[in-house]
Every structure is written in C-alpha cells, then in structure tokens.
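Two proteins follow. First one:
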Amino acid sequence: MHERPPAPDTPGTVVARRPRSRGWTVAACAVVALACAVGVWLLWRTFVDTWAGQRVEDAALDGATTGQGHLWRVAEPVLDVVSVGFVAGGLLAAAGVALVRRRWSLALQVAVLVGGANLTTRLVKYEVLQRPVLGVGADYGNTLPSGHTTAAGSVAAALLLVVPPRARPAVAVLGAAYTAATGVSTLVGQWHRPSDVVAGALVVLGWTAVVCAAMVLRPARTATATATFRRVDRSDPWRARTRRTALALVVVGVAAGGVATVLLTRTWAYRAGATSRADEMLAYGGGVAGVVAACSLAFALMLVLRHVAGARAETPA
C-alpha cells in the first residue's frame, strides 16, 4: 500500500518536482540551448557566409546613416555603459541578490551564465567563425555575435535568475528593453549588423537554458524531514503575472518579427541591383525590427524557463 505524501504546511510552497516533470524540464532546456547554437550558425551561414546576405546587411548598415547625428546622441551613452566594469558590476549585483536570498548555488550559476555567454561570444567571433571577403562593403573581419549585446543581455538575464518570483516579470520586460536598446544602438553607430545582435541574444538565451537545466538537476530543498512532494498553489498571483508577461513579450516579438520579415524580404529580392536610399532604409528598419523581435522572444523564453526551473524549489524570500 502506497502512503500519500503529507499535506503542505504552507499553500503555494513547492519542495520537489516529480522525476518525470524534471526530465521534461531538462529536455526543454536542452532543446532551447541546441536551437540557439543552430540559430547562431544559421545567421552566420545566411548573412555572413553568402554574398546575398552580406549585400542585405550592407544595405542596413548604410541605412543607419539616416538621422544618425540625432540618434547617436541617445545611442552613444547606452553603449558607453557597456564595458568590462559593467559586466563585473552586474555580476556582483546579481550574485549579491542571490546571497541575500541565501541561494548559494544560484550565485555560482549566474557567474557561469555571464562568464559562459561572454566567453562564448568572444570565441565564436574571433576563433570559430570567419567572414569571407566577397567584395561587399568594407572588410572589418567577423563581427558576429555582438559583444555589447551579449554583455547587456547576460547581465539582465543574471538578474532575472536571482530576483524573487514577484519581481521576475518586471525584470524580464526591462531586460528585453535594455538589451534591445543596446543592440539597436550598435546599429545606429554602425558598430554591428543586425545578425550580430540577434546572434548575441541567442548566445545569452542558450546559456540561460543551460543554467536553468542545472537548477532542475540540483537536489531540491526540503522544508521538513518527512515531506517529499507538495502541490503548487494554482491561484498564485505571481504565476499568473508571469504567464501574462511572457505572452505579452511573445506578442511583441512575433509582431516585430513579422515586420522584419516583410522588410528584409523586399531588400533580399532586390539585392542584385543597385540599392536606393529607400532600400537601405527598409533594410535598416527590418534590422531594427529583427533585434526587437529577438530580444523580446529571448526574454519571454528566459522568463518561462526560470519559472519552470524554480517552481520545484521556490520558497518565499
């Protein structure tokens, strides 16, 4: 005869996740991480390793000169913030929040996230991928993924992992907005092409998925010596807010992705001919929309993965 697990002392507290549920969560994280790696390669293969892709992004780069003087006044301060000191400070802040919440392993995990994402971007950009010289634009070498976007996104993702559940929706929205602003600022300054920025967002998402999988695999904390499983309170307001926020980010991402697809498809169709100013503006607008789409969808997935990974061991802060 099987004994029923004891009733929870506090509604809404989760102490452990059943093995099958843990397996599905780890599998989902693995799929996301693999998809991000494949996505980075596809971006390089399409926009960097082909003449047509280089032509489209070169048009976007030229389109960035429109209104650049006024836009750069806003973009330059955003980019000036991103530095080694910014990454170190963001990591210390995230680790500090984890330590205050007495989540010792989480402090280590965010260090893995930030360090892994930024090191991956550097290795992929300078050691793994190359930019062939195909006679399109100036040759600055490979710039995919964007280091600025990775730095901004990894710090925002680290904060998303360590804050309490009630703060995660707001941090996800602000993180998506800040990462997108940093990415768009690199386009304004002609520091990066759109595919570089999208690839940077994918690197951050991939490492976030890896860390969330590690959270699930780590043994869960127990509130009592006898309790094994506890139910989740489905009426938890933070759970509902997480769903609504993730859905809102997905809606923004899909809408921006649709705009990017329409604009870039038109530029792609006329890539063989001489590009007019209108073509350059369309390519530039498509690139900006693509950046917004990538950052919105990435942080929507991060929010969902963090919620699922933390649901088995979350206790009030």
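Second one, unrelated to the first:
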Amino acid sequence: MSVDAATVRRIAHLARIAVKEDEVSHLQGELNAMLAFVEQLSEVNIDGVDPMTSVMPMEMKKRADVVSDGEIPDKVLANAPATEDHFFLVPKVVE
C-alpha cells in the first residue's frame, strides 16, 4: 500500500495539522516508509505466541470487584447542600 499526495493532505486535514505544499512530498515518503515497515511485520510468524502486556512476565494487580459505600458516607455527604437517607437531593429539572 502506498500513500499519494492527496491522501497526505487528507490525513493532515483530519489530524488538524498544517502542512505546507513543499512538505507534502517529504511526508508522503515518511508515511510510505512506515506502511512498508508495517507490511514487513505482517510477514512475521506469530503462531503460538501469546499476547502480552509487558516483556517481563507479571500478574496484573487487581482489586476485588465488590460494591461498597466506601465506609465514609457521612464524609462524602458533608458538603452536600441537601441530603436525605445518605443520598444527594437535587432539584427537579425535568417535568
């Protein structure tokens, strides 16, 4: 796959990057070099290679997925202008 000058201008427009007309040919070469490298990567045999999050094998830190009130509902509601039964009261905005 290769990128032409019109595609470079479109990419620059979508990325909101100001590109002068004399820079288009240089950027075209840069983008084509990147795409050629990506095409090279698709030729690598990755059969049997597991996805990884890091080059070092490690277990992701996880917290328990439990619902709680944070054990500080009074502190959370301390600055609220209006509360009722540990809930925020808000003015009605929809009829």
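SUMMARY FIELD: Residues 24-41 form the longest helix (18 residues). The chain is about 35% helix and 5% strand.
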